[in-house]
TrEMBL record:
It comes from the Bacteria. This is Signal peptidase I. InterPro entries: LexA/Signal_pep-like_sf, Pept_S26A_signal_pept_1, Pept_S26A_signal_pept_1_CS, Pept_S26A_signal_pept_1_Lys-AS, Pept_S26A_signal_pept_1_Ser-AS, Peptidase_S26. It comes from Rhodoferax sediminis. It is a single-pass type II membrane protein. Keywords: Hydrolase, Membrane, Protease, Transmembrane, Transmembrane helix. It is found in: Membrane. GO terms for molecular function: serine-type endopeptidase activity; signal peptidase activity. PROSITE patterns: SPASE_I_1, SPASE_I_2, SPASE_I_3.
Length: 321
């Protein structure tokens, strides 16, 4: 078992290492699921086989030691070398290969259940959601509000509430589902979304915006125009860059592309059933549905709702719209 356990642990380490160094695109949900299954099997084996066997061996040792002491006592020998309690503890103690598998199962299982069905942490890697979310924000994502999904398979098993216009949502990037993206829900199924001359219109109605003082981006070291926008029940801020044109360059050939009309002024899209149109709050610096298309319901991960840490700015901690 020691050799088998060493090979299993080496396989996990090799997978994680190759993923870290970019040899392939890993799947953390699958890795965590496999770790839960493997450590769970070891935990069951420890509880119902290995531990009872060690306890049986400890009892046998105590019986043997008692018999030996009795025989020596008949011979007039009262003092016997050896600490039975210490020897028993050594027999009962978990070996290293069980300590690193069965011993870790409760922690791994708790992380797996929490991450799969309740809340999952993410780190914001880019500035596409500035000013709502900044680079380095560590956020929490509600995994059950849109319906509970089976881990790895991402199959929905409960309905939950449908995404609402204005929600900040994490989803699997349609062109590469192994990547997680975060954007704001702008268009719901059946909506006609128009973003022309940097003004957002939904179903023919302009979205209410109010000019705010300019926003200074510390990373870009420049100011951007800032507005307050109302999407559904969400009031949030967005940025516009006057140096960027209104038209959408480098559009990909995505599913249902025929639902979108591109022009020098921007884009107009009819959102297909069961799909969503996503945009970043940093409107001129966001690779979103304007470029790669709609997000299917099957790609949804959850709703982002809280910044739990930003090591560069502790004032960032808190909820957001």
């Amino acid at each position: 078992m020691q050799i088998l356990t060493s090979l299993i642990l080496a396989a996990f380490a090799a997978y994680a290492g190759a993923w870290y160094f970019g040899a392939f695109e890993g799947n953390f949900a699958l890795l965590l699921f496999m770790a839960t299954v493997v450590t769970g099997l070891y935990w069951l084996a420890e509880r119902f086989y290995f531990l009872p066997q060690r306890k049986k061996a400890a009892v046998a040792l105590e019986v043997q030691a008692t018999q030996r002491r009795s025989e020596l006592a008949k011979m007039g020998i009262d003092k016997v070398d050896g600490d039975i309690a210490q020897a028993r503890s050594r027999i009962i103690m978990q070996p290293w290969w069980l300590d690193w598998t069965a011993g870790l199962f409760p922690v791994i299982a708790a992380v797996f259940l929490l991450r799969s069905f309740l809340f999952e942490p993410f780190k914001i890697p880019s500035g596409s959601m500035i000013p709502t979310l900044r680079v380095g924000d560590l956020i929490l994502v509600n995994k059950f509000i849109y319906g509970i999904r089976l881990p790895v398979l991402n199959t929905k098993i409960t309905e939950g509430s449908p995404p609402q216009r204005g929600d900040v949502m994490v989803f699997r990037y349609p062109p590469q589902p192994s990547l997680d993206y975060i954007k704001r829900v702008v268009g719901l199924p059946g909506d006609e979304v128009a973003y022309l001359n940097k003004r957002l219109t939904i179903n023919g109605k302009p979205v209410v915006t109010t000019a705010l003082p300019e926003f200074f981006d510390d990373d870009a070291m420049r100011y951007y125009k800032q507005y307050q926008e109302v999407l559904g029940t969400h009031t949030h801020r967005l940025l516009n860059d006057d140096d960027r044109p209104a038209f959408v360059p480098g559009v990909e050939d995505f599913p249902n592309r025929q639902n979108c009309r591109y022009s020098i002024e921007g884009v107009v899209c009819k959102v297909p059933p069961g799909q969503y149109f996503m945009m970043g709050d940093n409107r001129d610096n966001s690779l979103d549905s304007r470029y790669w298309g709609f997000v299917p319901d099957n790609n949804i991960v959850g709703k982002a709702f809280f910044v739990w840490m930003n090591f560069g700015d502790l004032k960032r901690i808190g909820s957001f719209n």
